[in-house]
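# step 3/5: fold
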Amino acid sequence: MIRVIIERRIAESLEQVYEQRARAALREAVDIPGFISGETLQDAKNPNHRVILSNWRSEQHWYRWQNSPQRRAMMAQIRPMLEDEERVLVLRHTGQSDWG
């Protein structure tokens, strides 16, 4: 399993429209092969800063979705609402045991 962190900064006054489109995108991702789970978090000090955490079965599943026509279409709707390009970080487990 891998984790993908997506960081977005929403342009001022576009939060509500962004929320509607981002929720629709998450609903679409649920049906994508390899998608396990996801959640969206809002920065406690900056409501226009969002972080999306998602779990995927493999890097191949994520990259297939990231480069898919469906995600490109979704990003074409979301990108104009962002202050800058989204940042994507793909994380693999190190094999070391969890803390605690």
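# step 4/5: annotate
The chain has three helices and four strands.
# step 5/5: archive (pending)
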